[in-house]
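> forwarded from #structure-qc
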């Protein structure tokens, strides 16, 4: 693209962009775009940028207050997030948001144990506490599948309370997965190469057995019992999918990525179906990385055979879905240099020439919202594939072009994008470095 053409496109973007000034009406245009959609998927261009977390929370507050959203579903493990769900709904003993985040002990702890998340959870608890009696409270849920062993313990713990005999059967089935302790990667390696038996059958059978007892378990004590059964059932579903995921890791990145994103989309479906039984049409805000929530069909991912949550939700729910992305040009980010490494505040290099981020920087606007559903010269010009940056929990500036950039067609990837030119890293709750490796990254080197 020539300089003249690029300058013309930059001018076109500047003319239609909606500047974000910190005013209360900043996101009025986004609220109009969302309309009555049931699913608003809000991304992030890194897993460690304060402004992405902060603004995503502000948008979510408006969706809850103005449009009746009653669930926030995030890129986090189901049992860890469910402890937060109990806290924000006032049904557990955690006295503060920081203590409710106590389950997040595995790398990268800063992704959820940071001040922005604490502030949002404090607001959400206060909002729920202020609702009238018997009103539907807003929940907080995890969609990810790394918690295989924690989820096994949760299934057994639930059955110990409601059906001790079934708990013993579950212990026997899941013992197949216990030969490697909590080293899920070692299990996946051994099962993939025939060094150990696959535990797929046992994980599937345990889920089916739990589902056969649905009416008996869930109907005992009303709504609370139904919620707790759903929590246990989802843990059993997670074990089944995580077992497949760890085996798929050794069949290639594409296979494991697709297992993971299908699991997250499937979890969202089951969550909505469960919440719909409580009355009204459930509306959900989803928080994940851009790479999971921007439609994969508009990126290099599709060429590699990868799909993602944004694509799957769009395919199933159509116009009931709105995808919102974030971007930044430079600043700092909280990240690590390797999986399980020390938490660092890293300098983010200025975006590469020819990228969407560089184009947005050249508008001279420090912050803006761009509606990509509009029919104008700017959106038309942005259809041409450009580089887009993705920083996960790992940031490697020296290999940035290979590690952190891919080609995308932004107007097909998202319905709207929020650009914040200069950003800062999130502030972790934990000051001490987290250096112990716990779970392997299927998305090395970017860790998204």
């Amino acid at each position: 693209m020539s300089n003249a053409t690029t300058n013309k496109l930059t001018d076109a973007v500047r003319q239609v962009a909606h500047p974000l000034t910190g005013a209360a009406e900043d996101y009025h245009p986004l609220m109009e775009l969302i309309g009555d959609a049931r699913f608003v998927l809000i991304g992030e261009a890194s897993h460690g940028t304060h402004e992405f977390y902060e603004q995503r929370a502000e948008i979510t507050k408006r969706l809850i207050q103005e449009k009746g959203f009653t669930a926030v579903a995030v890129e986090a493990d189901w049992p860890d997030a469910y402890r937060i769900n109990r806290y924000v709904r006032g049904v557990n003993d955690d006295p503060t948001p920081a203590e409710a985040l106590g389950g997040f002990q595995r790398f990268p702890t800063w992704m959820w144990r940071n001040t922005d998340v604490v502030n949002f959870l404090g607001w959400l608890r206060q909002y729920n506490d202020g609702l009238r009696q018997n009103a539907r409270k807003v929940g907080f849920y995890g969609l990810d599948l790394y918690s295989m062993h924690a989820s096994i313990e949760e299934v057994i713990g639930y059955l110990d309370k409601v059906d001790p005999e079934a708990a013993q059967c579950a212990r026997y089935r899941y013992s197949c997965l216990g030969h490697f302790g909590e080293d899920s990667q070692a299990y996946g390696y051994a099962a993939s190469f025939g060094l150990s038996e696959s535990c797929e059958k046992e994980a599937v059978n345990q889920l089916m057995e739990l589902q056969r007892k649905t009416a008996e378990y869930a109907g005992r004590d009303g709504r609370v019992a139904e919620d707790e059964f759903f929590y246990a059932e989802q843990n059993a579903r997670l074990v089944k999918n995580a077992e497949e995921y760890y085996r798929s890791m050794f069949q290639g990145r594409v296979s494991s990525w697709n297992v993971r994103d299908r699991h997250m989309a499937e979890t969202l479906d089951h969550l909505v179906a469960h919440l719909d039984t409580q009355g009204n049409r459930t509306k959900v805000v989803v928080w994940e990385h851009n790479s999971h929530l921007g439609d994969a069909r508009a990126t290099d991912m599709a060429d590699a055979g990868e799909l993602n949550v944004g694509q799957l939700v769009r395919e199933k729910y159509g116009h009931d879905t709105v995808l919102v992305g974030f971007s930044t040009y430079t600043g700092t980010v909280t990240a690590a240099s390797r999986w399980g490494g020390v938490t660092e505040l890293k300098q983010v290099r200025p975006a590469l020439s020819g990228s969407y981020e560089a184009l947005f920087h050249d508008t001279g606007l420090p912050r803006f919202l761009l509606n990509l559903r509009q029919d104008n010269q700017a959106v038309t010009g942005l259809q041409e594939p450009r580089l887009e940056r993705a920083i996960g929990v790992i940031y490697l500036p020296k290999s940035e072009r290979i590690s952190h950039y891919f080609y995308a067609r932004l107007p097909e990837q998202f319905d709207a994008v929020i650009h914040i030119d200069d950003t800062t890293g999130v502030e972790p709750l934990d000051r001490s470095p987290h250096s112990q490796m716990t779970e392997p990254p299927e998305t090395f080197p970017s860790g998204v």
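QC bot note: The longest strand covers residues 71-77. The chain has a mean pLDDT of 91.
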